[in-house]
Amino acid sequence: xxxxxxxxxxxxxxNIHAVKGxxxxxxxxxxxxxxxxxxxxxxxxxxxVSGLLRSKGGKIRFLDREIGSIEAxxxxxxxxxxVPEGRRIFQQLSVEExxxxxxxxxxxxxxxxxxxxxxxxxPRIEERKRQIAGTLSGGEQQMLAIGRSLMSRPKLVMMDExxxxxxxxxxxxxxxxxxxxxxxxxxILLVEQNALMALSxxxxxxxxxxxxxxLSSNAKDLLExxxxxxxxxxx
Length: 235
Known about the structure:
Layout: E1 2-13, E2 16-27, E3 31-36, H1 42-49, E4 59-62, E5 65-66, H2 72-78, E6 80-83, H3 95-102, H4 108-121, H5 123-127, H6 138-150, E7 156-160, H7 168-183, E8 187-191, H8 195-201, E9 204-209, E10 212-218, H9 219-224, H10 226-232
Parallel strand pairs: 3-8, 3-9, 6-7, 7-8
Antiparallel strand pairs: 1-2, 1-4, 4-5, 9-10
């Protein structure tokens, strides 16, 4: 079943045409990655899907319903979650308060149950539940950002550069977490500059250049593609 279908979206920043006729889809249970250089339009695409930006024309369908004009908070209610670039946690709140904010639309009992689930997945976060979030390490903040996104019990999680600024050992840990989430049934749309890591866990991928999709295939084929190797894999 196709969970997300994006057709011919065009996004502008003033006169700058940042996303040019992009189309892609994500099936239920997949990890799909968008890879490309800085400025290729990857983050802009996620912001457009999540309702933070608007496309001029085209269609965005989630769970077979058109969502191109729906507000971001309503999309969260429908099961679409966005872990933004740079984590964007509430720096002055505690870890647990951040999680509560992620589930603000749910009942108190449901929030309690979901926080327990998040702590089971992220025991390090539970150890720091009373700690001010801004004092966490980069890896812990990323775990908190992912945990907060899970508080709405999403069907599809979009992750924007989850490995940014992290040490290699933490990068591996974050990608292991993404795989675990997917194995547990969560569909993932992943934007990531570390193309090798992204393609190593993804089912399929789309390569973007200057706002356009220039290549798409299953992840294994992209890993073996000479152009992809040269441009993104250091080979």
